[in-house]
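Human: You know discrete backbone vocabularies at least as well as I do. Show me how you would write down a chain together with its backbone fold. No explanation is needed for now; the record alone will do.

Assistant:
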Amino acid sequence: MMCIVLTTAQKRAIGILRIKFSSQIKICIKLRMNKKTVIVTGFGPFGSHAVNASWECVKQLKKIGLGDDIDLFIYEIPVEYSTVKKQVPELWNNHKPDLVVHVGVSGVAKEITLEQKAHNKGYNRKDVQIFM
């Protein structure tokens, strides 16, 4: 909790003052000072993955949290090219995140790996809607 002093003019400007107060009043408010916004996504079922491990991990992360100074938003994204193309930009526009991490699964990876490059074009595999 942080307490600040607002003048009557400042209170009017932000809509706090509805009744007449003295020229200054101490108002305690909880401020989001330097709070970071993080979005983490996991993907829905596809192919032989009836339960996508990426989404299961992301749900656990939400339970654990990233600390009081982080607003964490998690989303399950269907493995559908058209949905990804629509939903991911909406997440950026709606949340204005400081960091976005898309967690996925790989049938060939032997350890946790960080992709260095996104593949936005040239898909040659079908999604859950059978689109390429």
